[in-house]
Amino acid sequence: MFLGIDLGTSGLKAVLLDRAHQVRASATAPLTVQQPQPLWREQQPADWWQACEEALAGVLRDAAAQGIAARQIEAIGLSGQMHGATLLDAGDQVLRPAILWNDGRSHGECAELERRVPASRQITGNQMMPGFTAPKLLWVARHEPQVFERIAKVLLPKDYLRLRLTGQHASDLSDAAGTLWLDMAGRDWSDELLAATGLARQQMPTLHEGPEITGHLRAEVAQKFGLRRIPVVAGAGDNAAGAIGMGIVQPGQAMLSLGTSGVFFVATDGFLANPAQGVHSFCHALPRTWHLMSVMLSAASCLDHTQRLTGQADVPSLLAAAQRRGISDATPYYLPYLSGERTPHNNPAAKAVFFGLDSATEGADLGNATLEGVGQGLLDGIEAVEASGVRANQIVLVGGGSRSDYWAQMLSNIVNRPLIRREGGDFGPALGAARLARLGVDGGSVAESCPVPTSLGEFLPAPEQHARHAQRRKVFHRLYRQLEPLYSST
Fold first, then answer.
1. How many CB atoms lie within 10 A of CB 40?
2. Is 452:262 a contact under the CB 8 Å cutoff?
3. Cα–Cα dist 369/389, whole Å
4. Which H/E stretch holds residue 124?
5. Does residue 365 sit in helix, strand or coil?
6. How far is residue 29 CA from its own chain's centroid?
7. Residues in Cβ contact with 149 at an 8 Å cutoff, skipping those fewer than 6 apart
8. Is there a cis peptide before residue 344, judged by omega within 30 degrees of 0?
9. Are 159 and 86 part of one and the same domain?
10. CA 148, CA 145: separation in Å to the nearest integer?
11. pLDDT one-digit tens code per residue, 75-94
12. Residue 75 placed within a domain
């Protein structure tokens, strides 16, 4: 048995995977995000650890009910939200709330870092964006110097859990790639970029490939949960772990993820980049592999927002109403920028917009507009990624939003590609983390530890519907271009 722990933004999930690749138990614990000022997004690391303890207790209770003993568990893998700045002093005490991936306060620091290191895009393969870790630290240095002076270690969110589990300061290359302190081709910290942020290598965690063992459970943690002092492997950032869970390990295999954020992920066997369009070029969670990724900051979360605006009881009710109503030429347009945007605009000030309402517009129309607008944003990301020179030969649809057949079909129509839904998609990155734990312990082949899950169905594009979305796409893009000058003044 292998445990996978995924520290998400809205909750932490733990799953227990057996050697037949079956998830035998799972548990979740909720998390909340604090927004103390506009553009700010923060969480308390102590809340992450509390959620981890709750989910671990829950998954072990679930396992015990099936006659599975905690001592049968062989290893733990970690996954989590990327880019978060977790700042610790010399005694490993948290210095301030963690600044999250969707925080937009450090836009000015991005330009400053690129000025300080003109070759930053060549080194990292990425454009500096407020979501990444490096500009957050420059912001702290400028605005909270008394905090910055006390920093002994900077950890990513999941790696704070590793510290609590094992006592080790360590990270994996896929997650570390999202800091913008990594030499992406060399798969190591860049001393030049660290120095530009006022930091040094000794303030960083050690780096490991995803399946490498980084430490063993501390005695008190093992005793509390009835576990042996089992190894904890490096793991992966959430998207790389999600890809591992879906067997996306070969070049050209791709994943479209509909979670809080929306991600298009494609594996590559070499270092490629398209920073000008906000494409993320990161290390994958396996040795000698990389991946390209587009990120839109608000995807399925847009549905939650529209559900509240329209007064529907819940998101399934909104989806049902949207499906009954159907999409048409009269459906309003929607720009899905509730938290700004990354790919391709890199604009933290971008706003969400409904356009084209009239006296006949119903709540269900706003639901359809939201579904389509998120799809158009995802297609922006797909096109930006493929402009780097890679072509997806298969796209797997995952994430909470993928459970809707109606939305899955609409997305296929918008992107004009077949989309495949596979088993295990609901377990997300936690499944990939558990697979990496197995790979770290067994040392076997990637194909054996990370097989492609069974297909649950394929959605094929309908030519007439694609033509409609393609025509409406022209207005979608024109709306953003015309509104963009207003965002900076609001």
1. 16
2. no
3. 31
4. helix 120-124
5. helix
6. 18
7. none
8. yes
9. yes
10. 5
11. 999 999 999 999 999 999 99
12. yes
Residue 377 lies in a domain: yes
Q: Identify the domain boundary among 204, 239, 274.
A: 239
Same domain, 219 and 315: no
30 with 62, same domain: the answer is: yes
Residue 459 confidence (pLDDT) above 70: yes
Q: Quick check: is 238 catalytic?
A: yes
Tokens of 251: 């070049």
Q: Model confidence over 306-320: pLDDT tens digits?
A: 999 999 999 999 999
Among residues 189, 213, 239, which one ends one of the domains?
A: 239
Predicted confidence band at 490 (pLDDT cuts at 50, 70, 90)?
very low
**In 3D, which of 153, 143, 149 has the Cα closest to residue 179?**
153
According to DSSP, the residues that pair with 335 across neighbouring strands are 353
Do 12 and 5 form a contact (C-beta atoms < 8 A)? yes
Distinct helix (H) and strand (E) counts, the chain: 17, 24
209's tokens: 């490939």
The β-bridge relationship of strands 236-237 and 75-80 is parallel
Q: How many CB atoms lie within 10 A of CB 198?
A: 16
- pTM, rounded to two decimals: 0.86
On whether residue 178 sits in a domain, the answer given is yes
Active-site hit among 103, 159, 172, 238: 238
Do 214 and 362 belong together in one domain? no
| Contact between residue 256 and residue 378 where contact means Cβ atoms under 8 Å apart | yes
* 421 touches 411 (CB < 8 A): no
Range of the domain at 118: 2-239
Residue listed under structure tokens 């939003």: 401
Number of domains in the chain: 2
CATH assignment of the domain containing 137 = 3.30.420.40
Q: What are phi and psi of 23, to 5 degrees?
A: -80, 115
* Residue 447 in domain: no
Q: In the chain, what percentage of residues exceed pLDDT 70? A: 99
